[in-house]
Structure formats: structure tokens, C-alpha cells
Amino acid sequence: IAAAVDIWAQGPAALPPPRQPQTPVLPVEGERNVLITSALPYVNNVPHLGNIIGCVLSADTFARYCRLRRWNTLFVCGTDEYGTATETRALEEGLSPQQLCDRYHALHADIYTWFRISFDHFGRTTTPQQTRIAQDIFQRLLARGFLLQDTLEQLRCESCGRYLADRFVEGTCPFCGYAEARGDQCEKCGKLINAVELKNPQCKICRGTPVVTPTQHLFLDLPKLEGQLEAWLERTLAAGDWTANARHITRTWLRDGLKPRCITRDLTWGTPVPLDGFRDKVFYVWFDAPIGYLSITANYTDQWERWWKNPQQ
Q1: Contact indicator for 97, 269 with CB cutoff of 8 Å
Q2: pLDDT tens-place string over residues 197-207
Q3: pTM for the predicted model, two decimal places
Q4: CB neighbours of 20 closer than 8 A, spacing ≥ 6?
Q5: How far apart are CA 220 and CA 242, in angstroms?
């Protein structure tokens, strides 16, 4: 405390000079290296103050603190651009999904610049690097036997010639009877819905009546990973860095037993699945979007693995 008071009394002139970052910022042997990522904002809207507070501001504050401490710091973020919400918004605005993403990515970048959010790099998920890294992770999972195939029943609109993702279906909620429920959740009662459970379903695009049709999908075989995950969690939780909420949710998932999780969707807007029999599908955004942190870093520097595969630093 006495040292802090002394420095405070001397004023800014007593502070060490700010660190001059290298370009690109890369881990440095023997130094404290800090990689900061803030949640990727979804691309299909104009950010407002609540988005900024809940998404990027806390990470920006921490990045500024790290730089003041003269730690070697890299702060990256970017827009999350795949998924059905983008397709839906593009239809509403009469644009292609790519045109919509280009428009809103630029809006996001301008707003964060106006707020002086101190990203070292602000990227996006619709890039060749995203495709390459996501497909590489997929191929590694496939080669190691961590994927399986199974059949799902989905609504298909014969008039549009496509399977309908959750947000492209509307109908009557099977729980409360609300007539304009979406295929993923009822806005009135708040309950999650499987689209095939909707009563009187309608295609949101043409208002035709879709039919339930079986389709093959790929799943991440989480039960096969459960033993390794539990062993890792025991070591990690013992370090004490997890919040009580994170511990509770994780233990609940493991207590109930992990289930296979679908990683593909019958859509066109997304990262293509590089496997025969599934090339007309894309990766489900929950599988694809977290890889955006890696690919955005890879677009910043071709030495991105020094940040992401380098636990010693």
C-alpha cells in the first residue's frame, strides 16, 4: 500500500513506459502471455449498449489492465455469422446471407471502433480459415471414432424442396396452445420445442404444410468421451478457478450421463461437411462457432497455434 501511495504521489511520470507490442503479437518465452477472447457477437443485428456491456466491455477492461501491467496481451473477437438466424434475417431484408453478414460485420466493426474497444483483431467466422480448421477438427474426430450416424425426424417443405430448420417453422405450441410458436421455443410459455411436436406447422417461407421426414445426421459421441472428460474435470476443478455456477452445471450434465449430440444440419448457410453422404449438409452452429476463436486468431497470424497449442506459455 505504501508503494502504491508513493507512486500515486509521483504521478504518471513515475510509471514505466507502456509496452510497445510487436506485430503480430505472439507469445514470448519467459514472459506472461495473455490471450483474451470475448464472446463472438451474433451478426444479424446492430449492437446496442446492453450487447456491448454483456459481450465485449469486460474483456476490453481486462485487456487494458493486462497491457498496463506490461503483460504480453492479445485480444481478439469477431462476428458469429453462420446459423439459421442469419438466413431468417437475410430473407426478411431481401439479401443473401453473405450480403447480410458483410453489411452487419461492417456495422459491428464501426460501432466497436467508436466505443474504442481495444481489439488487436476483430474478425469473422465466414472465412476460408474457419472452414479449414473446422473441417480438420471434424476429420480428427472421425478418424478417432468419436462420431456416429443416426436418423432424425425433421419437417420438410416439399414446395421449397428443403428441410426446415427450427426457425423456419411456426405452429401451435403443444404445451400452451399459442398459435405463433417457433420451431425451437414458444415465446408465450417459454418452453423449448422440438419442431416436429408443433401442431398445425407451417413453413415460414411459403406457408405450406411441411411433413415429417427421416434424415441422416452425424453426432458427436459424447458418452465415449465421458471417462476422459471426468478425469480432466477432477484435475481442473481441484485448481479452484471455476465459478460455483459452472461447477454445478457441469456436474449436473455428468450426473445425468452425456448423450450423443448432433453436429450437422440440413442447411446451405454454414461450413460444409466434408464427408460423402453428408455433403449437402453443414455443421451445426454450436459445433462450428466456438472454432471461430481459433480461426479469427489464424486470420490475424499464420502462427496462431503458438497461442492455442502452447500451454507452457
Answers
A1: yes
A2: 999 999 988 99
A3: 0.87
A4: none
A5: 25
